[in-house]
Every structure is written in structure tokens, then in C-alpha cells.
Alcohol dehydrogenase catalytic domain-containing protein
Amino acid sequence: MKALTFEGPGRRVWHEIPDPVIGGPEDAVVRVDAVTICGTDLHILKGDVPEVTPGRVLGHEAVGTVLEVGAAVSGFVPGDRVLISCVAGCGRCRYCRENQDGQCLSGGGWTLGHLIDGTQAEQVRVPFADRALHRLPSSVPDEQALLLADILPTAYEVGVRNGRVVPGSTVAIVGAGPIGLAAILTARLLSPSRIVVVDPAASRREAAERLGADLAVADADAAHEAVKTVTDGLGFDTVIEAVGIPETFELCADLVRAGGTVANVGVHGAPATLHLERLWISNVTITTGLVDTSSTPTLLRLLADGRLDTSGLVTHRFGLDEIHDAYDVFGRPQESGALKVALFNQ
């Protein structure tokens, strides 16, 4: 089969590798029908994730068709059309029993495209298949389902839920890339009073307002002005960091109100300064997290019922064998206007 492999910082190769095989009784082999690229893949290619070694097939988000299952898989059979979650656990360890699959102690968590071969290939082996796979209703198109593999549950669990968004909250989201836009969609499920987005790119500010932000501003000065006009100078109840660089994290800490929450979602490749000398007295909560995908069944029901619309997030479409072009477009959003890209195995 063909797959995209990481070959060291700045190097990726689309080439022929052996087909995946069932390696354990809880595995499934899935034909990849649609796949996407994540900002985390770009971090890997920059060398920010040292656990990813040369030769690793990249990718952790896909929709596909089950080809084969291990002897212990009870929930799926060949031919099932499925969503592959980016994170899945054993279901038995302490963390999994608390629905914290991202911290699985038995070889689960984020493995695809990280510790084992991932989804940017014609086929993929999926461990813990009964927990990792979700059968897709016929009414849900591949392209829309694809967004539930990672960015929607990540934005909801690590941003909105950890950020303690409730009806009437004021919410600021720093970064209007795919995760920030997904945070808008999932925050709106909880009826905040105002959502303000900060991003320097005009195309992403426009996308933020199209997807439900009340206000989108370009920089820190405008964000501080929004504190005055939107929150009466108090600061935001919830501030979601959706970029992953020191400057944006520090801006989030400036925008949150006393007693509010900063929910960090961005993947950081460098240290950020935490101004405890100022924050210690303000009852501010700072959360971090890796998605557990516990919300995926709920989000999938909302998508199937028309209560959640992901159609505005995919801006570019490619064949799977055009994956280098897809990376070039996704990696240059300021020039291409890309939000999410979708690749189809036709």
C-alpha cells in the first residue's frame, strides 16, 4: 500500500510500504476512505514531537471501511463504515475506567501517527478497535464525519468543557485555525452570551464570524479593547488557547477575569512564561489536556441529527495520492486560506 512517512524534521515521503496486519485480538484493519491533516502533524514535521521516529506513517484522523477484525473485537465486522478516533484506550485501566483514554496505561492513548503507524495511508491497523471505532450513520457524509476524529472532540473536551463554558459565559478564543473554529461550534452548544476570537489572518476572522463568533479581532490591542466593551473591563469567563506559542498563551492569561479559566488546547513546542506573581491572587484556573474522545458519541449524534454542522471547516479537497500538495496548502494558510483539508482514497 501507499503511505506518507515521517523521515526526520522537514522530510516526508509518500511511498510503498507493507500492508498492515492484525497484530492482536483487539485490532482492526481499516481501509482509509477519507483522511485529513492536523496541526499536530506539522509540529511533528518540525521536530517538536521527538517520540515520532523516522519511518512512522503520519496521521490520526480518518473515516474508513473495516476490512478485518481480531478475535476479541465484538462491535464491528468487515464492511462497517467507521470513524477512527485519534485517541483510544484499553477500557480497563484506571484512566480508561474514568473515560480518560488519553492517559491509558495499557498501550492506548494517542498512538496513531505517534507511537504506531497512522492514518495517512491506504490502510491502517487500529488497536482497541471496539473503543477506537464509531459506526457511522448513512446520513453522515465522510467529509463531515472526518472532523469528529480529532478537532471537534478536542475543542469541546479540552477547550469548552475544561474551560467551564456555561450558558451566559463570555468566551475568548485565541487562534482561529481548525481547533479555534471547532471551539466556536462546540461552545455555541452551551449558549455563551458572547464569543470573541483573536487571529491576525483576515480570512480566519471571516470564517470565525461565519461559524458563530460575535466578534473577531486581529491582535492583542484589539483583544484588550474587547475586554472593556464585551466584559465591562472584568475579563472573559473562559479563554481558550488554540495556537500553541508562548505569545498566545500569555495573551490568554491577560484576557481572563479573576475567577475565570484559561483552557490551553494548543500544542506547545517551546516554554511559555506563567506570570504567577500576578495570577496567584486572582483565583484563575489554568487547564491543559489531551483529548479523551469521550464526547465523540454525543457529537456524532448531534451531527447526525443536524444540530452540529461541520461543513464550513473543510476548504480544500484532494485525492489521497495528492497528499504532498495537501500538506503544502495546509501548511501555508496565510496564502492558501486553508482551514481543514480532506483527502479521499478513490
Summary: The CA atoms of residues 201 and 334 lie 7 Å apart.
